[in-house]
Design a protein that fits this description.
By secondary structure, this protein is α/β, with parallel strands linked by helices. It has helices at residues 11-18, 24-27, 30-39, 59-71, 74-82, 115-135, 159-174, 190-198, 217-232, 276-286, 288-304, 314-327, 346-358, 390-395, 423-440, 467-488, 499-509, 515-523; strands at residues 41-43, 49-51, 109-110, 113-114, 148-152, 181-185, 205-210, 241-246, 260-263, 333-339, 376-378, 402-407, 417-418, 421-422, 457-462. The longest helix has 22 residues, at 467-488. Catalyzes the reversible isomerization of glucose-6-phosphate to fructose-6-phosphate.
């Protein structure tokens, strides 16, 4: 039987707090460090590896974390989730984003349909539509092929799909699967839509409107912006737009769209990259086969996350080490540092995924918790970040745990030898050096040049950013966030924190304001 208990009531957590801390400088120096790098490693799907040698853990702490995983019933709770229990207690919903890429357990029926069949049906419809667009069977009003796809959506309808598109754009060009350029409009700031529309040929562009409810203010505002641009160009908007929405939304059966593809309430926006939300734009941009490879990579990583042995379950282990850093060591933030330009927007996606999921101060029953929950997430690609905020990471007063991601090979496989090494070798040399520099530091009598070290990090290493490895990477972090939510006993699948501002904004626009809200409205000339 599953029980949902707060972290600070668990006996294993109290034991974890008492385990002797690790001196990371000593642990990572010399032969000790070399052995840790060899041993503290877990295989992931699609040739990835999670290495936690430079984390502030040892065998005793890891054993305590394994006890915590058992007492918190992490494997059992994941099993309940993928078998269709109502895990999203705030909205009384199932949580089914895993089922968009595979069925991990029993068949799940909701809304009178088999949900795996529903998701695969939508993927098949998207694939058929994309293939017809690429073949010139679906064209603009003049019978000409579309060359650009533009996604209109905000939050999870933008951040994940945009990050995935950018991650695979150069790979697709190198591997001859690049079909259409993709652009994204998200911000209600008119400059966002105007900039995108000015950069494309609207006559040869197809627009994907993404809104589950069909009522998202920013998205519908930008849709009107796009429709005006199409009208001004003498074009019929209904021949240039498709919708990704729920079957019950006002967009579902509207004549304003060439086609509609469906999602449902069981997939949160930040978990929707493997649903129709990512499927439409990525299938149009790269072809349905590439999107299928992306799904396969995610499914393979999901399968690993079922393992009850924490040392064979990279997402669970990563999650538990993060809980240890947050709730025992007291570190308030985590930096995500991909040493790949392809992953330039991946930290922004993880920022939403993590902070919107676990940025909660009440448990799944609405009761206040007495311990920290989700960390602040930030990051940029290396080596750019090294010349930006790494100063604080190395010598600042706060210790910030680091999550590196690195690849042995570049996507374009175009390089040059400068000073006896290639650019890719220089990139990889930097990430290896940073891990050791953060962990071990460097003593210097000049305090300004002294590095205390003891700054923990982990790294996910892969061969190359490709559709399969990207899917596995995405699923790893989705499952990590899920497991941490289970440990903290919070609901990782609602986001009430985004609602209050929306409600007040509507009051401002209706001129129903008073007090400070009225004064700010006046200052902004609303």
């Amino acid at each position: 039987m599953i029980t949902w208990n707060n972290l600070d009531t668990l006996a294993s957590f109290k034991e974890l707090e008492k385990v002797e801390r690790v001196n990371l400088v000593e642990a990572m120096t010399g032969e000790s460090g070399a052995e840790r790098v060899k041993n503290y490693s877990v295989p992931m799907a699609e040739g990835l590896t999670y290495n936690y040698a430079a984390k502030q853990v040892d065998d005793k702490i890891l054993a305590a974390l394994a006890k915590l995983a058992d007492e918190a019933q992490l494997a059992e709770k994941f099993e309940a989730l993928y078998n269709g229990e109502v895990i999203n207690t705030g909205e009384k919903r199932l949580v089914l984003h895993h089922m968009t890429r595979g069925q991990l357990g029993e068949a799940v029926e909701a809304d009178g349909v088999d949900k795996r069949a529903f998701y695969t049906e939508q993927q098949a419809k998207i694939a058929d539509f994309a293939n017809k667009v690429h073949a010139g069977e679906i064209t603009n009003g003049a019978g000409e092929k579309f060359t650009t796809v533009v996604q209109i959506g905000i939050g999870g309808s933008d951040l994940g799909p945009r990050a995935m598109y950018l991650a695979l754009e150069n790979w697709a060009k190198k591997n001859d699967t690049f079909k259409m350029e993709a652009k994204f409009i998200s911000n209600v700031d008119p400059d966002d839509a105007a900039a995108v529309l000015n950069s494309i040929d609207v006559a040869h562009s197809i627009f994907v409107l993404v809104s589950k409810s069909g009522t998202t203010l920013e998205t519908l505002t930008n849709e009107s912006f796009v429709k005006d641009a199409l009208k001004n160009a003498g074009l019929d908007a209904s021949k240039h737009m498709i919708a990704v929405t729920s079957e019950t939304s006002p967009l579902a059966k509207s004549d304003d769209y060439l086609a509609a593809f469906f999602m449902d309430d069981y997939i949160g926006g930040r978990y929707s990259s493997t649903s129709a939300v990512g499927g439409a734009v990525l299938s149009l941009a790269f072809g349905p086969e590439v999107f299928a490879q992306f799904l396969d990579g995610a499914a393979a990583e999901d399968a690993l996350s079922k393992n009850k042995d924490v040392f064979k379950n990279p997402a669970m282990l990563d999650a538990l080490i993060g809980v240890y850093e947050r709730n025992v060591l007291g570190y308030p933030s985590t930096a995500v540092l991909p040493y790949s330009q392809a992953l330039s927007r991946f930290p922004a996606h993880l920022q939403q995924l993590d902070m919107e999921s676990n940025g909660k101060s009440v448990n799944r029953f609405g009761e206040p918790v007495n311990y920290p929950t989700g960390p602040v997430i930030f990051g940029e690609p290396g080596t750019n970040g090294q010349h930006s905020f790494y100063q604080l990471l190395h010598q600042g007063t706060d210790i910030v745990p680091l999550q590196f991601v690195g690849y042995k090979n570049s996507q374009m496989e175009t390089d040059v030898v400068i000073q006896d090494s290639t650019s890719q070798q220089k990139l990889c040399a930097n990430v290896a050096a940073q891990i050791v520099a953060f962990a071990c530091g460097k003593s210097d009598e000049n305090r300004n040049k002294n590095f205390e070290g003891g700054r923990p990090s982990s790294i996910i290493i892969g061969e190359q950013v490709n559709p399969g490895s990207l899917g596995a990477l995405l699923a790893h972090f989705e499952n990590k966030v899920m497991f941490q939510g289970f440990v903290w006993n919070v609901n990782s699948f609602d986001q009430e924190g985004v609602q209050l501002g929306k409600v007040l904004a509507k009051r401002v626009l209706a001129h129903e304001t008073e007090g400070a809200l009225k004064v700010f409205s006046d200052l902004l000339n609303i």
